[in-house]
Write a sequence for this structure.
């Protein structure tokens, strides 16, 4: 979709429209009832206008007793039917609209759950949130408005035209002034709207994103005095949003006022036609006023119809944005082999990794064999590629070269779900859910674990001592992203989660970095216990904790530069020995 030069209803828009219709197809019965309502709504108004002529000519001029009795009853009847129609059509359209929103929200959310990890770094999270909160609402309101206006107002115009024509074909000629002018206005309006509505969606994402970021970083903002900066940044975003919205308002206002002007011309022509000397004598006031009223009633409907394209555009560009996300390919999972329980024989063969938006290789040919049940420690400076290497295991990233072999089979031959079942993971930054401690430990596929198992896992992770002090023990809520807990407490919950999972491959990526030396020592025993009979990859910044590892691999700039046991590497006197000397020196100064 590129700007306003293209035709308004190109093939692409049709495709989106049809797909959107597919979403509401299930509610065709409700749609039918709503349609009847719209017909009653528009028809009632027409019937009333049609009554104007007899009302004026027969009631007041001829004083017909039959009509004098029936007219009030007809009026009530017509408007009773009409209000039934209004109710049914409004509620019916909302019913369909809300169901469509729900389905779209569910589809977009489902797609967030299966998109590859790399996607989440590629777009600001504000865009992802506003797609669910704002964009899907746009689809519903815009498309149900469009349908309601299209049918009700379309019918009103047609009915009114019929009333005019049947009352006086001659006076109806005055409409000739109005129709081409309004068609022109409608075209201009929808062109303009199409250009703007997509940009508005984008700004809603920026608004959400900026708020989210500032709220999340509320402490940093305060400590570093970023209030003015944040306020300025937010102001920029909302100013942009306001500008775009006002552009739309200007378009609407201009089209409404122009239509009114055009209508005034038509009215003038109507009066001119009605007062020509050759017709003036036969012209009854009833006929004149009925045509006049029909034209007046047609006007608001025509106004809405000229803007209905705008509604449709808004809904279409919103739907397009959602469909794009729904259609994104999910994580690659071409594996067919179900992995029961791996023996944990893990081999990296010349593994390379280039991140999508980076030019350099984060991993430059890593060869490493982790024998079943052994502990491999990765050490090296920050940025040397340790986390990147282990991120390949749950297949958060795909190697751009080389391969990983598990139990003698290519890693990619296994199904993603069965692979991930083999891995327990404790990372540096722990994300907890807004739920109880127990549900955070027994999360996902672990849900349903017995309370005894959960407590045992928490005890092994040395977490029970602080959990027991919470008001409701393991059933205490820990607040959004575990706000109530310290970093070390959160890490211990994550360790308990990993213990409970009891998976054959264990990854500890600076898992104890947030712990003090004493707690670390306590957990170390639990971790030693946990590592037994598992293939473990451990990244630790405190070398004292990995001295017992079966092999230590030292990484530098995406390569393994040294490999061996603690004793071997010390004798070698290379990178590891240097790192060790440094930490030993620090420790003897008492800073660790
Ligand atoms: N998601 C990512 N996208 C792009 N580059 C990344 C990403 N994660 C890490 N990198 C880059 O890859 C290199 C290795 O990072 P990382 O594996 O996190 O190092 P370590 O864990 O050893 O500190 C760094 O240069 C880092 O900037
Ligand atoms: Mg790291």
């Amino acid at each position: 979709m590129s700007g306003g030069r293209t035709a308004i209803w190109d093939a692409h828009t049709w495709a989106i429209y049809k797909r959107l219709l597919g979403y509401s197809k299930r509610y065709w019965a409700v749609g039918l009832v709503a349609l009847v309502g719209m017909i009653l709504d528009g028809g009632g108004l027409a019937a009333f206008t049609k009554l104007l002529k007899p009302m004026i000519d027969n009631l007041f001029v001829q004083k017909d007793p039959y009509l004098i009795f029936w007219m009030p009853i007809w009026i009530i009847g017509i408007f009773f039917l009409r209000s039934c129609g209004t109710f049914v059509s409004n509620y019916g359209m909302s019913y369909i609209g809300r169901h469509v929103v729900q389905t779209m929200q569910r589809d977009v959310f489902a797609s967030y759950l299966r998109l590859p990890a790399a996607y989440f770094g590629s777009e600001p999270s504000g865009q992802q949130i506003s797609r669910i909160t704002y964009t899907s609402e746009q689809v519903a309101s815009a498309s149900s408005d469009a349908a309601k206006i299209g049918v009700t107002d379309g019918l009103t115009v047609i009915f009114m035209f019929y009333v005019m024509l049947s009352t006086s074909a001659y006076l109806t000629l005055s409409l000739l002034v109005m129709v081409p002018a309004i068609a022109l206005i409608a075209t201009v309006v929808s062109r303009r709207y199409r250009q703007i509505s997509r940009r508005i969606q984008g700004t809603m994402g920026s608004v959400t994103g900026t708020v989210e970021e500032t709220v999340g970083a509320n402490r940093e903002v305060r400590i570093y005095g970023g209030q003015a900066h944040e306020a300025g940044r937010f102001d920029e975003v909302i100013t942009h949003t306001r500008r775009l919205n006002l552009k739309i308002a200007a378009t609407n206002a201009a089209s409404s006022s122009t239509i009114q002007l055009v209508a005034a011309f038509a009215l003038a022509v109507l009066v001119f036609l009605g007062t020509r000397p050759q017709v003036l004598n036969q012209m009854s006031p009833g006929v004149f006023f009925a045509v006049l009223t029909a034209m007046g009633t047609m006007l608001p409907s025509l106004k809405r119809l000229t803007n209905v394209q705008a509604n449709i555009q808004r809904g279409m560009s919103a739907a397009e944005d959602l469909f794009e996300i729904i259609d994104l390919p999910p994580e690659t999972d071409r594996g067919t082999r179900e992995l029961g329980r791996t023996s944990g024989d893990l081999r990296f063969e010349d593994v390379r990794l280039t991140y999508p938006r980076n030019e350099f290789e984060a991993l430059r040919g890593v060869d490493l064999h982790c024998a079943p049940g052994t502990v491999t420690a990765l050490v090296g400076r920050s940025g040397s590629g340790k986390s990147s290497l282990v991120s390949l295991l749950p297949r958060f990233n795909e190697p751009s070269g080389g391969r990983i072999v598990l139990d003698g089979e290519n890693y990619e031959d296994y199904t993603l779900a069965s692979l991930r079942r083999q891995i327990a993971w404790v990372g540096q930054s722990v994300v907890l859910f807004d739920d109880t401690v127990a549900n955070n430990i027994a999360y996902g596929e672990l849900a349903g674990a017995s309370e005894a198992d959960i407590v045992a896992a928490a005890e092994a992770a040395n977490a029970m001592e602080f959990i027991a002090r919470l008001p409701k023990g393991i059933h205490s809520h820990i607040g959004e992203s575990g706000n109530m807990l310290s970093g070390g407490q959160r890490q211990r919950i994550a360790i308990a989660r990993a213990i409970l999972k009891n998976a054959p491959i264990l990854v500890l990526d600076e898992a104890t970095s947030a712990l003090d030396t004493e707690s670390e020592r306590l957990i170390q025993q639990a971790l030693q216990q946990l590592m037994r009979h598992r293939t473990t990859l451990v990244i630790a910044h405190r070398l004292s904790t990995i001295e017992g590892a079966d092999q230590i691999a030292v990484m530098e700039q995406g390569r393994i530069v040294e490999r061996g046991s603690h004793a071997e590497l010390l004798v070698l006197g290379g990178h590891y020995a240097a790192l060790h000397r440094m930490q030993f020196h620090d420790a003897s100064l008492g800073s660790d």
Summary: The pocket of adenosine-5'-diphosphate (ligand 1) is lined by residues 121, 355, 358, 362, 380, 382-388 (CB under 6 Å).
